[in-house]
Fold this protein.
Amino acid sequence: MTEETYQKPSVREIQELLEKKFSGKVRVTGTEERRVCANVDRDCIHDVCAYIHGSLTFEHATSVMGNDMIDHMEVIYHLSNYFNGVIVELTAELPADDLRIWSVADIWAGANWHERETYELFGIIFDGHPKLKRLLTPDTYEFYPFRKSYKLRGKE
């Protein structure tokens, strides 16, 4: 396969192209009809997303979210191709002591809001984000309400 733009890449093409181009950095964990799931090393998430957007024509970051796995965090991306209805789900693991990953807001403008919400709720920092600030909670909050370590207050 050559470097070209695929307007309607098949699930099999997506799997082969990602594993070939990002050998050892992207591991496809499963495929279904119109769906590809992969784990991605966090140090190359921006490069993988730029490739998926530019060469595989995934025009929309449907969601970017956090997941607290207690001993580490995950950032999960759902990326959509409108031409064929395929969704790519990327998961990047972050060690508990270094909750940083590169922003993809420069690739998909809508990811800006998803990343801000993930920062606000989980404390994951998106390096290179144009305006990484809380959306709903006060800037003075010193906790992240979606972390499993956050304890709700009892009745007062």
Remarks:
- The longest strand covers residues 60-68.
